[in-house]
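A student in our group prepared the protein record below, which I am reviewing. I have pasted the whole thing underneath without changing anything:
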Amino acid sequence: MLPTYRTIKADSLHETEIKKSRFICHLKRVETEDEAKAFIQAIKKEHWKATHNCSAFTLGERQEIQRTSDDGEPSGTAGVPMLEVLKKNELINVCAVVTRYFGGIKLGAGGLIRAYAGAVADGVKKTGIVEGRLQQAIAVTLAYPLWGKLEQFIETSQIALQDTQYTDQVTAICMIDKNQSETFKAQVTDLLNGQVTFKKGDTRYVEHVIEAPE
């Protein structure tokens, strides 16, 4: 498992107009090639009157699967430029479909490349980017008088607090980057002079916004 990955924050739709042609960018998170193909077909069905429905998607932890389609546009002017935007942003498991309604003015090869790449780039900016980090849940149990000190440490260190349980003691469930778990435990032990116990929980990816939607 990778320590981190990047993908879009959410599925989205963004439209722009260039020389009277409408370019509608649909972005969707996908897990399989079949899911990506089904999404492309759904957009084609929805926009069956459109001049073109060009597509690109990347799948896999290291973008192992990459597919593009110019859907009738001159070869290399749509799908590949769209894919390059996804690759430049290091996004995985994302499918982009750009629907074009021709406005009567030809853009030329360079204009098409800029239009399709720009549609995806704008779409990514509008939806935002998240980074998934492989993190481990660590339950930190301590006495009530020490809770304020730990709470301040959690806030200043920007640690994700999953849950706080109040019984005869306080237990804070913290999400820590997998490769930082031992460092975290050492820091908390030092902070609280050893008056604390830890219990490791499950490990999973937790997504954090690294580029907020514009």
About this structure: Strands lie at 4-8, 12-18, 21-29, 52-59, 65-69, 94-101, 129-142, 160-166, 170-177, 197-211.
